[in-house]
Each structure stands twice: as structure tokens, then as C-alpha cells.
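Worked Example 4.2. Consider the chain below.
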Amino acid sequence: MQRIHLAPFAIAAVVAACGGSDGSDDRDSTVGPCVVLYEEPILLITSARDSASSASIPEITLTEIKVNGALLDLRVLGAVTPSARVVGSSIQCTVPCGFATTEGAYSAILTASGYQSSVLSVAAQYQSSIGGCPSTFGGGKRVGVSLQPL
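Applying the procedure from the previous section yields the following C-alpha cells:
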């Protein structure tokens, strides 16, 4: 029985995934998955305020969350801050909070106890990206929201 040594093939695959054979950063010829890192979520709600008194609202709920017109699948949000919790088809946010990694046009219905619902509509893009493969994205969109009392 003839033995096949896989080590040379494994090493070649790793080297190819890291760049060109000449040590250059040949991003177009990578093999295997590319590692993408996110320093923070794409959408960060930094404050929620009462529109009449400017008092802070500590917790809000986001429902009907869409990105580029399509409902966001809350099971695959990517990055989520510890203060954002998925509950059924909504996100409960203890402000500040953040979620998701997909860039695009976001919309959601915002609610909070004692307040009228409001529509959030914002274009979210990362402000910085480093590298091609692997890459790191940072500087998510920060927004403050205001709700009217009932």
C-alpha cells in the first residue's frame, strides 16, 4: 500500500492563503475563507431621550428591523453589544447598545414604555477598514434617538 504525505499540501494551502508565493500580498489568489473582524457593531444607539424634557430613556425596543428594505434575520446579527438582547422578533436595548455588521440603509420601529412609537431610519457604514484579506472594520454609525411621551 502506498502512503500519501499530506503535510506538503497543507503547508502549500496555508502559504497560498497568506499571500503570494514570493511573499507579496496577492489578495486575488487566496485560498480558503478570508477572516473578517469587526471592532464594533455597524449600528450603535448612543442615547435615547424624551423629546419634551430631554430626560434619558434607559431602555428601548426595536422591531421590524430592516436593512436595505429586507427584514433583518436576528439569528445572524454578527456583532451585538452585551446591552442588546434578541427577544423573539425584536431587540431590547439598554442604552447604549449596538448590533449587526451589514452596511446599508436601516429602518426600525422604536418603542419604550410611556412613549409613542417612532421610526428610525439611518444609513450605516463603517468609517474605517484595514486590509483586504484578512480585514478589520471599525467606526460604526452612532445615533441618538428621541421619543415623544404619550
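The chain has one helix and twelve strands. The first strand starts at residue 36 and ends at 38. Compare this with Example 4.1 before moving on.
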